[in-house]
Amino acid sequence: MKNIRLYTLLALLMMAGGFMQAQEYESYFGADSTRLNVLQYCIDWVTTGYMEINTADTVHINGHDYLHATPRGFFFENAELYFREETATGRLYRYFPMIDEEEVLLCDMSLTVGDTFYQISNWGMAHPSVVESVSFENGRKVIRFALPVYPWHDALTFREGIFPNNFPIGYLDYFDCENNLLCEYKDGEQVFENPEYNTCYIDETSVQEQDLQHISLYPNPAKETVLIEGAKAAEVQVYNVFGQLVKTVKDSHEINMAGLPQGVYLLRIADTEGRSHKARVAVKE
C-alpha cells in the first residue's frame, strides 16, 4: 500500500511539473538571434530603426543576465541597451544604463482582464493602462489594453513571444516620439508583422499622417493666439505634456492659447480633407 501511495504521489508530482512547464510562455527571443524593426515616430521626423540581439551576447548586471541589443538607425545609435525575460510569467525587462537606475518592465503576459499595467515613459513617468481583453491568436496569448498611454499613440498590445507594439527603447521622451514595433524576426525568420502598418519599413515620405512640410504655426512660441497655416482645420485638439486634452477647437485656423500654463503643447489637427497632422507649439507667459 505504501508503494502504491508513493507511486501515486510521484505521478502527481510529475504531472504537476509537466503542467508548470507547459505554462511557461514562448520566449521573446530566437534561439540564436532576434531582430526588431521599429518605427520611431516623432513630431517632426520619422525613421525606421532596428535592433539586433545575439542570444550568445550576454552580460551579467545587477544580479541578472541580460541580452545585449545593438540599436541601428535611431537617435541613440550604438547605445548600450539590454533586455531579459522571465518565461514563467512572460515578463520582459529593459535596462538602458544611460537613463535607467533600475530595469524597466516592458511586458507581462500573466495579466488578466481588469489588471493595470504601469508603462514607464522614457523620461520616467508611469502611465496606467487597464487590460480590456485577453484572447488567443494562432496559439499565442494576446492582451489588449483599453486606452493608449497618450491619445495619439497606438493602444498597447502584448503578444506572447513578441515584443510589445509600443515600448520605450531610448531616452527620447513620449511627448516627442513613440516607438512602434513593425516586425520581429527570430533566427532570420519573420514571426510578426504589425497589422496596424502591414510593412516592415516606413520612411518619412510614406507616413500620410505626418505632413509637416505643409503645416506651420505662427507665432511659435506664442502668448495668446496661434495661427495654423497650410491646412484648413476641421478640428484641433491641444494636449499638454502629460497627454491630457486641454482644449478642442472646431472649424478655425486660430487657436486661443491664453490662460494655458507656460510650456510645450502638442496639437493634433484634423483637416477638412480627412488628413491628420501633428505639430508642437510653445506657450510663454
Describe the structure.
The chain is mainly beta. It is 7% helix and 47% strand. It has one helix at 2-22, and strands at 33-42, 46-61, 64-72, 81-86, 91-95, 104-108, 116-120, 126-137, 140-145, 157-159, 177-186, 189-193, 216-218, 225-229, 233-239, 245-250, 254-256, 263-271, 276-283. The strands form 4 sheets. An 8-stranded antiparallel β-sheet has the order 6-5-4-3-2-1-11-12, with no helix packed on it. A 4-stranded antiparallel β-sheet has the order 7-8-9-10, with no helix packed on it. A hairpin with a 2-residue loop joins strand 11 and strand 12 (189-193). The longest helix has 21 residues, at 2-22.
Strand portion: over 45%
Instruction: Using the alpha-carbon principal axes, give the shape.
Output: elongated
Mean pLDDT: 80
Contiguous uncertain segments of 5+ residues: 13-22, 171-175, 205-213
Please give the number of β-strands. Answer: 19
Count, helices: 1
Radius of gyration: 23 Å
Q: Percentage of helical residues? A: under 10%
Structural class, by secondary structure, is mainly beta
